[in-house]
Amino acid sequence: MESLQDKVVLLTGATGGIGAKTAALLAGSKARVFITGRNESTLHAVAQSAGIPLSQCLLMDITRENEVNAAVAAVLQAAGTLDILVNAAGIGIIRTMDQLTSDDFMLSLQTNLIGPFYLMKAVLPAMKEKKKGLIIQIPGVLGKVPMAGAAAYSASKYGLTGMMQSIREEIKRTDIRITQLFLGGVDSSFWDRIDLRVQRDKMIVAEEAARAIWFLCQQPSSGVVSEMVLQPFNHQAI
Protein backbone atom coordinates (compact mmCIF):
# COMPACT_ATOMS: atom_id res chain seq x y z
CA MET A 1 0.00 0.00 0.00
CA GLU A 2 1.15 3.54 -0.70
CA SER A 3 1.51 6.01 2.15
CA LEU A 4 -0.86 8.97 2.21
CA GLN A 5 1.54 11.15 4.18
CA ASP A 6 1.86 14.58 2.53
CA LYS A 7 -0.31 13.53 -0.42
CA VAL A 8 -2.53 16.39 -1.60
CA VAL A 9 -6.15 15.26 -1.66
CA LEU A 10 -9.23 17.13 -2.81
CA LEU A 11 -12.36 15.65 -1.25
CA THR A 12 -15.65 17.01 -2.56
CA GLY A 13 -18.91 16.48 -0.70
CA ALA A 14 -17.10 16.39 2.63
CA THR A 15 -20.14 17.52 4.62
CA GLY A 16 -22.10 14.33 3.86
CA GLY A 17 -21.99 11.29 6.13
CA ILE A 18 -19.50 9.34 4.03
CA GLY A 19 -17.51 12.45 3.14
CA ALA A 20 -17.03 13.53 6.75
CA LYS A 21 -15.82 10.07 7.79
CA THR A 22 -13.48 9.95 4.81
CA ALA A 23 -12.04 13.37 5.64
CA ALA A 24 -11.15 12.17 9.14
CA LEU A 25 -9.48 8.98 7.89
CA LEU A 26 -7.42 10.82 5.27
CA ALA A 27 -6.33 13.54 7.66
CA GLY A 28 -5.48 10.86 10.24
CA SER A 29 -3.13 9.33 7.67
CA LYS A 30 -1.34 12.69 7.42
CA ALA A 31 -2.57 13.55 3.95
CA ARG A 32 -2.97 17.23 3.14
CA VAL A 33 -6.74 17.24 2.68
CA PHE A 34 -8.74 20.03 1.07
CA ILE A 35 -12.47 19.60 1.59
CA THR A 36 -15.48 21.15 -0.11
CA GLY A 37 -19.11 21.65 0.75
CA ARG A 38 -21.93 24.12 0.27
CA ASN A 39 -22.53 24.97 3.94
CA GLU A 40 -19.69 26.87 5.58
CA SER A 41 -20.55 26.10 9.21
CA THR A 42 -20.97 22.38 8.51
CA LEU A 43 -17.75 22.33 6.48
CA HIS A 44 -15.84 23.99 9.32
CA ALA A 45 -17.29 21.52 11.82
CA VAL A 46 -16.07 18.61 9.69
CA ALA A 47 -12.63 20.20 9.41
CA GLN A 48 -12.32 20.82 13.13
CA SER A 49 -13.40 17.28 13.94
CA ALA A 50 -10.92 15.81 11.44
CA GLY A 51 -8.04 18.12 12.36
CA ILE A 52 -8.01 19.84 8.97
CA PRO A 53 -6.98 23.55 8.89
CA LEU A 54 -9.85 25.88 8.07
CA SER A 55 -7.68 27.32 5.31
CA GLN A 56 -8.19 24.01 3.51
CA CYS A 57 -11.99 24.36 3.52
CA LEU A 58 -13.43 25.44 0.19
CA LEU A 59 -17.02 26.46 -0.34
CA MET A 60 -18.14 24.81 -3.55
CA ASP A 61 -21.36 23.80 -5.26
CA ILE A 62 -20.51 21.06 -7.74
CA THR A 63 -23.29 22.22 -10.06
CA ARG A 64 -21.55 25.58 -10.60
CA GLU A 65 -18.59 25.36 -12.98
CA ASN A 66 -17.03 28.62 -11.80
CA GLU A 67 -17.00 27.37 -8.18
CA VAL A 68 -15.49 24.03 -9.20
CA ASN A 69 -12.77 25.79 -11.18
CA ALA A 70 -12.08 28.17 -8.29
CA ALA A 71 -11.80 25.33 -5.75
CA VAL A 72 -9.36 23.34 -7.88
CA ALA A 73 -7.34 26.48 -8.61
CA ALA A 74 -7.16 27.22 -4.87
CA VAL A 75 -5.78 23.75 -4.16
CA LEU A 76 -3.16 24.05 -6.88
CA GLN A 77 -2.15 27.51 -5.73
CA ALA A 78 -1.81 26.44 -2.10
CA ALA A 79 -0.20 23.03 -2.63
CA GLY A 80 1.32 23.26 -6.10
CA THR A 81 -0.07 19.87 -7.07
CA LEU A 82 -3.03 17.51 -6.73
CA ASP A 83 -2.36 13.84 -6.09
CA ILE A 84 -5.84 12.47 -5.41
CA LEU A 85 -9.38 13.56 -6.21
CA VAL A 86 -12.21 11.90 -4.30
CA ASN A 87 -15.66 12.97 -5.44
CA ALA A 88 -18.17 12.17 -2.70
CA ALA A 89 -20.65 14.86 -3.75
CA GLY A 90 -24.00 13.71 -5.04
CA ILE A 91 -27.76 13.77 -4.72
CA GLY A 92 -30.32 10.99 -4.53
CA ILE A 93 -33.83 11.53 -5.86
CA ILE A 94 -35.79 8.26 -5.80
CA ARG A 95 -39.28 8.75 -7.23
CA THR A 96 -41.46 6.81 -9.65
CA MET A 97 -42.11 8.36 -13.05
CA ASP A 98 -45.57 9.58 -12.06
CA GLN A 99 -43.96 11.62 -9.25
CA LEU A 100 -40.64 12.51 -10.86
CA THR A 101 -40.52 16.06 -12.18
CA SER A 102 -38.40 17.54 -14.94
CA ASP A 103 -36.62 19.62 -12.30
CA ASP A 104 -35.83 16.44 -10.32
CA PHE A 105 -34.35 14.83 -13.41
CA MET A 106 -32.25 17.84 -14.39
CA LEU A 107 -30.97 18.34 -10.83
CA SER A 108 -29.90 14.69 -10.71
CA LEU A 109 -27.97 15.06 -13.95
CA GLN A 110 -26.48 18.40 -12.94
CA THR A 111 -25.22 17.11 -9.59
CA ASN A 112 -24.24 13.52 -10.35
CA LEU A 113 -23.00 13.80 -13.93
CA ILE A 114 -22.40 17.35 -15.14
CA GLY A 115 -20.75 18.37 -11.85
CA PRO A 116 -18.24 15.50 -12.07
CA PHE A 117 -17.64 16.57 -15.69
CA TYR A 118 -16.70 20.04 -14.39
CA LEU A 119 -14.37 18.40 -11.88
CA MET A 120 -12.64 16.29 -14.51
CA LYS A 121 -12.15 19.30 -16.79
CA ALA A 122 -10.62 21.20 -13.85
CA VAL A 123 -8.26 18.54 -12.43
CA LEU A 124 -7.04 16.70 -15.52
CA PRO A 125 -4.72 19.41 -16.90
CA ALA A 126 -2.56 19.44 -13.75
CA MET A 127 -2.54 15.65 -13.54
CA LYS A 128 -1.70 15.33 -17.24
CA GLU A 129 1.18 17.76 -16.81
CA LYS A 130 2.88 15.43 -14.34
CA LYS A 131 1.30 12.32 -15.92
CA LYS A 132 0.24 11.06 -12.53
CA GLY A 133 -2.74 11.10 -10.21
CA LEU A 134 -5.63 9.13 -8.74
CA ILE A 135 -9.30 9.89 -9.31
CA ILE A 136 -12.04 8.15 -7.32
CA GLN A 137 -15.67 8.48 -8.37
CA ILE A 138 -18.63 6.85 -6.60
CA PRO A 139 -21.38 5.85 -9.04
CA GLY A 140 -22.95 3.39 -6.60
CA VAL A 141 -24.60 0.12 -7.61
CA LEU A 142 -27.39 2.06 -9.33
CA GLY A 143 -24.74 3.07 -11.83
CA LYS A 144 -24.67 -0.61 -12.87
CA VAL A 145 -28.04 -2.09 -11.91
CA PRO A 146 -31.38 -0.25 -12.27
CA MET A 147 -34.07 -0.06 -9.61
CA ALA A 148 -37.73 0.92 -9.74
CA GLY A 149 -38.06 4.59 -8.88
CA ALA A 150 -34.46 5.37 -9.77
CA ALA A 151 -34.89 6.62 -13.35
CA ALA A 152 -33.24 9.98 -12.64
CA TYR A 153 -30.62 8.64 -10.25
CA SER A 154 -29.60 5.70 -12.44
CA ALA A 155 -29.51 7.89 -15.55
CA SER A 156 -27.02 10.20 -13.85
CA LYS A 157 -24.93 7.38 -12.38
CA TYR A 158 -24.89 5.23 -15.52
CA GLY A 159 -23.72 8.36 -17.32
CA LEU A 160 -20.96 8.89 -14.74
CA THR A 161 -19.80 5.29 -15.16
CA GLY A 162 -19.63 5.64 -18.94
CA MET A 163 -17.93 9.03 -18.82
CA MET A 164 -15.17 7.78 -16.54
CA GLN A 165 -14.61 4.65 -18.63
CA SER A 166 -14.22 6.83 -21.71
CA ILE A 167 -11.80 9.20 -19.95
CA ARG A 168 -9.77 6.19 -18.82
CA GLU A 169 -9.23 5.31 -22.48
CA GLU A 170 -8.00 8.83 -23.20
CA ILE A 171 -5.36 8.83 -20.45
CA LYS A 172 -4.18 5.22 -20.50
CA ARG A 173 -0.72 6.26 -21.69
CA THR A 174 -0.21 8.20 -18.46
CA ASP A 175 -0.01 7.06 -14.83
CA ILE A 176 -3.32 8.75 -14.01
CA ARG A 177 -5.50 6.09 -12.44
CA ILE A 178 -9.30 6.04 -12.25
CA THR A 179 -11.23 4.02 -9.70
CA GLN A 180 -15.01 3.69 -9.56
CA LEU A 181 -16.61 2.64 -6.28
CA PHE A 182 -19.99 0.95 -6.60
CA LEU A 183 -21.54 1.27 -3.14
CA GLY A 184 -24.76 -0.48 -2.23
CA GLY A 185 -27.10 0.78 0.46
CA VAL A 186 -25.26 2.93 3.01
CA ASP A 187 -27.01 4.07 6.18
CA SER A 188 -26.56 7.81 5.73
CA SER A 189 -28.61 10.99 5.41
CA PHE A 190 -29.18 9.97 1.77
CA TRP A 191 -32.27 8.09 2.95
CA ASP A 192 -33.68 10.82 5.19
CA ARG A 193 -35.54 12.51 2.33
CA ILE A 194 -36.56 9.39 0.42
CA ASP A 195 -40.07 8.02 0.84
CA LEU A 196 -39.12 4.37 0.54
CA ARG A 197 -39.33 1.57 3.07
CA VAL A 198 -35.80 0.28 3.62
CA GLN A 199 -34.02 -1.67 6.35
CA ARG A 200 -31.37 0.81 7.35
CA ASP A 201 -30.16 -1.42 10.17
CA LYS A 202 -28.99 -3.92 7.55
CA MET A 203 -27.14 -1.37 5.41
CA ILE A 204 -23.43 -0.63 5.28
CA VAL A 205 -22.48 1.95 7.89
CA ALA A 206 -20.93 5.20 6.66
CA GLU A 207 -17.68 4.45 8.51
CA GLU A 208 -17.14 1.27 6.47
CA ALA A 209 -17.92 3.05 3.20
CA ALA A 210 -15.35 5.69 4.16
CA ARG A 211 -12.81 2.99 4.95
CA ALA A 212 -13.26 1.60 1.45
CA ILE A 213 -12.45 5.03 0.00
CA TRP A 214 -9.50 5.41 2.36
CA PHE A 215 -8.21 1.99 1.28
CA LEU A 216 -8.56 2.90 -2.41
CA CYS A 217 -6.55 6.08 -1.85
CA GLN A 218 -3.63 3.89 -0.78
CA GLN A 219 -3.57 1.49 -3.74
CA PRO A 220 -0.02 0.84 -4.96
CA SER A 221 1.20 3.02 -7.81
CA SER A 222 2.20 -0.11 -9.75
CA GLY A 223 -1.45 -1.07 -10.27
CA VAL A 224 -4.99 0.23 -10.19
CA VAL A 225 -8.26 -0.96 -8.72
CA SER A 226 -10.47 0.00 -11.64
CA GLU A 227 -13.67 -0.97 -9.81
CA MET A 228 -14.73 -1.92 -6.31
CA VAL A 229 -18.20 -3.13 -5.30
CA LEU A 230 -19.27 -2.82 -1.66
CA GLN A 231 -22.87 -3.66 -0.75
CA PRO A 232 -24.87 -5.07 2.15
CA PHE A 233 -24.39 -8.80 2.54
CA ASN A 234 -28.11 -9.59 2.42
CA HIS A 235 -28.93 -7.24 -0.47
CA GLN A 236 -26.41 -7.89 -3.22
CA ALA A 237 -27.53 -6.38 -6.50
CA ILE A 238 -24.31 -7.03 -8.43
Shape: globular
Pattern of helices and strands: EHEHEHEHEHEEEHE
Structural class: alpha/beta
Number of strands: 9
Q: How much of the polypeptide forms β-strand, as a percent range?
A: 15-25%
Number of helices: 6
Oligomer: single chain
Question: How would a crystallographer describe the biggest sheet?
Answer: 7 strands, parallel
Q: Which CATH architecture would you pick?
A: 3-Layer(aba) Sandwich
In short, what is this structure?
With 238 residues, this protein is of the alpha/beta class. It has helices at residues 17-28, 40-50, 65-79, 102-130, 151-170, 206-217, and strands at residues 8-12, 32-37, 57-59, 84-87, 132-137, 175-183, 186-187, 204-205, 227-230. It is 42% helix and 17% strand.
